[in-house]
Amino acid sequence: MKILLLEDDPVLSDIMLENLELSGFQVTLSMDGETAIKEIESSKFDLFLFDINVPLSSGLDVLKFAREYHYETPAIMITAYQDIKHLKESFSLGANDYIKKPFDYEELEQRIINIKKHFNIENKETVTLEENLFFNLAKQEIIKNGISEHLSQKESEILNYLFTNSKRVVSTEELMQNIWIYDEIPTDATLRVYIKNLRNILGKEHIRTIRGVGYCFE
Predict the structure, then answer these.
(1) What strands, in cross-sheet order, belong to the sheet with 147-150?
(2) ω before 102 within 30° of 0 (cis)?
(3) With the CA atoms of 195, 199, 200 and 205 taken in that order, what torsion angle do they form, in degrees rounded to the nearest 10?
(4) pLDDT at residue number 182
(5) Residue 71 pLDDT level (bands cut at 50, 70, 90)
(6) Do 29 and 11 contact (CB within 8 A), yes or no?
(7) 161: part of which helix (H) or strand (E)?
(8) CA pseudo-torsion sign 36, 40, 45, 51
(9) Which residues have CB under 8 Å from 41's CB, separation 6+?
(10) Over the stretch 132-149, which tens digit does the pLDDT of each residue have?
(11) CA torsion angle for 114, 61, 160, 110 (degrees, to 10)?
């Protein structure tokens, strides 16, 4: 699980970095908001951990940037503020969780585990798409009526993203921004090929095209 940690306190950031890595997470540390934005532009992450009060651009500004550019990566906001205002603003900008300093690492880890479960991040278990149709992201395979079929890495990532956001229309731009890094974003035609391949395996009824917008998993 790849985590982008935005924290400017050198002592706390060292402690968090050490504990997160001991828990098996791959962590990129940014000490200010502008650096965090550059990391978001150049790499993909499974989770954002953003302190609100950091130099150059606040954690809230970084979260706003991410959401405006269709990065749906789940985010946990970290703050020393005890007021409700910052909590409300965090959630209004698209935060998924909020933790106040000081906190025990165990509490943070449990919140991360909950995010992993909710967003199906690195889920090694087979998930049921419908009766007799199953998907295993770790193995990159679909099992349909007892027959296994291997998916490419991108096909697996696209299916996982659409399934995680079931019943919601995912725009073409959002899908590309969250599956590919900036300098590797494909053409619309390439994305359509991936979608066509998935439909051939799953059945056309599972991925619906919303003309001029994007796709919806049903």
Answers:
(1) 127-130, 133-136, 141-144, 147-150
(2) yes
(3) -160
(4) 63
(5) confident
(6) no
(7) helix 153-164
(8) positive
(9) 182
(10) 888 887 778 888 888 888
(11) -10
